[in-house]
Amino acid sequence: MACMKLGSKADAFHKQGQAWFCTTGLPSDIVVEVGDMSFHLHKFPLLSRSGVLEKMIAKASKRGDDEEEARCTLLLPDIPGGSKTFELVAKFCYGVRLELTAANVVYLRCVAEHLDMTEEYGDGNLLSQTETFLTQTILHNWKDSLKALQTCEEVLPQADELNVTKRCIESLAVKASTDPSLFGWPVMERGGPMQSPGGSILWNGISTGARPKKSNSDWWYEDASTLSFPLYKRLILAMSDRGIKQQVISGSLMFYAKRYLPGLNRHRQGKSGESSASTSSLSEEDQKHLIEEIDRLLPLQKGIVSTKFLSGLLRTANILRASPSCLSNLEKRIGLQLDDASLDDLLMPNFAYSVETLYNVECVQRILEHFVAMDRVEGGNSPHLINDSQSLEVGSPSLAPITRVAKLIDGYLAEIAPDVNLKLDKFQLLAAAIPDYVRPLDDGLYRAIDIYLKSHPWLTEPDREELCRLMDCQKLSIEACTHAAQNERLPLRTIVQVLFFEQLQLRSSIAGCLLVSDNLDGSRQLRSDGMVGAVRENEVLKVGMDSMRMRVAELEKECSNMKQEIVKLGRAKGYVSSTWSSVPKKIGFRLKSQMCSAQEGSVTNPNNNSPKSKVLLEHKANQRRHGNLKNLQKI
Questions:
Q1: pLDDT of 295-319, one tens digit each?
Q2: What b/e readout covers 105-130, taking b as 16+ CB neighbours within 10 angstroms?
């Protein structure tokens, strides 16, 4: 820390209890009361340096009698810095040795102005000395400027009036936007030319013992966080005015919040086991005020701060009952970048007075609505642009964020589904907020629905059917279809739909395999060179077709068993049998069309020009068509 020595005499002051005495050999003729301290001094050293003290001594001498004139008392209740600062002023007036430092220069600069200690009352007076030291030394160094700004907190009105606070802030703002190696102690890059063999920094060829550090834009975060928030806020605004990047400003705000909001670090420690770095001694009211102020300072821009930090800030704001505008702004910030969130970021406990659910579902619902609205404004794809699930996966990159959000919400629904207090309408509203076209598969949604049905066994059949309408049975994977076909918690209508679409997909796959097999047979007769490869591929396809036929047989057996059960139930509900009877007809009709078209396509082979081959192929196609029609009639 920089210092400036003043005076040359030995210290002639000593303290006794709450009083200071000057041992110059002469009895004191004036007592100065500053707070709870008394200074027994002499008139001449004081009035020769201070215009204010000169006037006060003269006024007290005229008002008092002869005894009081010999010993008067002055009261200085409003002196900046209190008794500690006046002790330094008294020593300066007596010429005693003292040091000006960054820790006391602001106090002495303010008290010199307050007591009118100008050059009119002596050359090299305290006002000029402190101003010179402040301007030429303190404001040229980061650490000293920071320390001086910290001391402005106790004498803020006087420091603001003298522009001391502003000058310290401007000095720090300039240095924060400048390479730190250009001021103060040099900051070297690792591996630079000015390093000793041991790796320490060399200064004029001499090893300093200091280790080199990276020169990053966040080097000033920790120092700035030591300021009180009013001064820190003024520093941040000054940096913004100087054009420092918003990412850097936001990073400093995040660092400051983590230091003074224990809730952010407590949540982080509970999840990752890291120790809390918070040094907060703020009350809950001050913490709430801090959150609201940080929300105002943070720019409303996507990706400017991490979603994890914003969710922690929102969680803490809910605990501390922050203002509704603050909560709404934080929800909008999270909604802007919801595609970067994790499941843990959305699991916010419910701190409402009337607690119904374990997690704050309404908050997540509002966040999701903000994201969907933002996605529409930015020109996200509409449903008519999506033809199938494959085009969704390989389509426009604009679909990637909302697809990630759909997966995230499905996971969130599965996490909150076991809550027995979660109402059906809240679950449905959150699930339906995601457009259907952005889900390539509905496996995640099916899992959440299944967990909800398991945790709410009292739901009626109509409620179960309404809940299951949220998912599309055609967008379930084979594994999900297999699980759903055996899931007793699902309503009967959903199980029938799952079986129907699964069987339809399998039969369509078989028809496609038959078409490929016929084409391979024709090409094998025409091209003897590819005989070995065609035989191998044909064998692989036949193995797959056998597996599919076995699966179809199993499904047909399951459908037959279900049909018998439905017929039994149909005695009490007559409409079931009539409904069921239409299903095989529809399946048969569609499969006949598919099989016929597939077989006709296999006969027409553009690469086959031999009349004999055409006859053979047509004969085979007729045999297969006849066999398929018999099988369909059996169904």
A1: 999 988 888 999 999 999 999 999 9
A2: bbbbbbbbbbbbbbeebeeebbbebb
